[in-house]
Design a protein that fits this description.
The chain is an alpha/beta fold. It is built from five helices and eight strands, in the order H-E-E-H-H-H-E-E-E-E-E-E-H. It comes from Sediminibacterium sp. KACHI17.
Length: 193
Amino acid sequence: MKTMKWTATLLSAIFLLISCSRTAYVQKDSDVDFSKIKTYSWVRTQADKETANASTRNDDLTNRKIRQSIDRNLAEKGWKEVKNNPDVYLVYDVMIEKENKIDRNAVYSQSFTRWFFNPASRRWVPVFYPSRFLGFDENTRTVNEGTLTLTMMDADTDKTIWQGWTTSELNGRKLSDKQIDSKVKAIVKKLEE
């Protein structure tokens, strides 16, 4: 009996952890053998150079944290960052946009009890009326939704060979360290598939 309870608890904990993990999506070139790729280099795009003004320098800390998280997760997979002759080039993009989210909540009537007098038994008899389903209450709210995209390009042809992204609702205006790590981990995990 103890082992049955222990097994049920363990299975429910595993189910809870799996259901809380981030979902990442991937597009990849099926002709590329990703097992041969072991080195990478970061690309600074022309758009980055053109928009390198004071407002983007404020996000320098977030950009460094994203890059460090990607480097750390790729190093765990055996990848190495090099300056010359990489197998692939990497570039990432963060997009934060406002989205309308609809929350639907079920609405029920108030349950109540009515009392009736029974003249035959000379007593008051309670009659319970349960609550009834009335429909749904819909609320629309504006949320910040963040999308992190990691793109991998072949170093020889400059063609995109792999792209992974994940999207989630943000608590504030910017990505937190915890959100960055979980998003990057979910994306890099898809490299094995």
